[in-house]
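Before we proceed, please read the two lines closing this message. Tell me what the token row says about the fold.
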Amino acid sequence: MTGLSTSCPSPSDAAGHPTPVPTAVVACGALSPSIREIVTRRRWQVELHALPPLLHNHPREIAPRVESLARSLQAAGLRVVLAYADCGTYGALDEVCNRLHIRRLSGLHCYDVFAGDEKIRQIFEDDPGTYVLTDFLVQSFRRTVLAELGLDRYPELWNDYFGSYNLLVWLAQTHSAALESEARGLAAMFGLPLEILEVGTRGLESQLAELLNADTAVVSIEGPSLHERRT
């Protein structure tokens, strides 16, 4: 859990009515496309500041980068909310939230945000050898995982990294033929079955609405919140 958010007294217009403090969303770059779509559709007046998604490969760097950016935005007079889960920082982001009186997305990682922590817990209880994909990972796996681990240069190390996995689960935020083809290609690369869990962005949208104190009634979201397919 993060520290409770606090707010400065709101400025007033000429008639004495309070005017809203401008809000900045500091986001993980892997979430920024979904956040941009939600913000545009809901017509929320916020600034989106995305940090590089490759910070996830160096989680110790996430909290310092977030704190530096958040402090600069606060110094510029903006209210800041954090579109990160814990993301492997082991509480370091919560410490930042407490120091700066800001709030973050709930959960240990973005999987919890998209599918819910109970569903993610169930997935790993059913098979601890599950590799979970998001849309971002499906699209960027060769660059953000293979290249970053050096497997494009040393493919003989594949089993050292991935030999213990039994199943791929794709948490599909947007299900398209192109993304499904890419996900199936990754499953073939692993030599493992693929389970598709269509989660959409409902969980992310609901949490953002709460953080922004926006209307928390999530509307205009098509389809069920969860739909599973396994191949």
In short: The radius of gyration is 19 Å. Residues 1-18, 215-231 have pLDDT under 50 and may be disordered. The chain has two domains: 1-105, 112-198.
